[in-house]
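This protein record is not my work; I was only asked to verify it. Would you go through it and say whether the fold makes sense for this chain? Here is the record exactly as it was handed to me.
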Amino acid sequence: MTPRFHGKRIVITGATSGIGLAGARRLADEGADLLLTGTNPARIAQAQSEIGSATVILNDASTPEAGSALAQANAGRGIDGLWLNAGYADIAPIADTDAELFDAMMATNVRGPLLQLGAVSDHLAEGASVVVTSSTSTYEGAPRTAVYAATKAALIAAARSWAAELAPRGIRVNTLVPGAISTDFRSFMDDTTRSTFEAGVVSRVPLGRVGSADEAAAVALFLLSDDASYVTASQYPVDGGLTHR
């Protein structure tokens, strides 16, 4: 049987760690032609070494030039799948939320994907799939996560708009909504805070455990594939049932 992504051009932002890297590995195994981005030179080198068939570039979604740089890196190539996965989290109590924290997170998590999609939209092939990574923080209402949750809620709203705008070209846009996934994404927390946070989340997850990066990536690959050819403007939680209690 021909692999699902044989000969397909797939672009993933934020693909040198966590869910993005897990997805890139699986896509490479299924025959995809990959363009991957990251911001950490050591991780970029590691991903390039591990996935030799991929092209891995430095691209910082927080900068205004990120979109045009991504388009330039993909020049002359059509895109069958675009996974806008780059993002980061920071937390602060209400009283300590300042303009610097707000602007930095909005730049990376919202402006970045908006400008990147805009810059490569003409590269999207007819019938292409776009996946946007959001977060269950949008629904959880956890303390100190207001700005991060707002950025991820903005992506869900944007994705629904993109789905309507791109539908005449047969392009689907869906949102991956990870919950508690075992990655280094919460490295900004000290060990005690992280352990307490994760234990609190797991206590509310019906499946009673944290998910793996591979489990989240598998859902993203479904949405990128032709198996999801009649799925658009949807949100897919990968959270062990956390947001459906």
User: Anything to note?
Assistant: Helices lie at 18-29, 41-50, 66-73, 99-120, 137-140, 146-166, 191-202, 213-224. The domain at 9-186+213-236 is CATH 3.40.50.720 (Rossmann fold). The chain has one domain: 9-186+213-236.
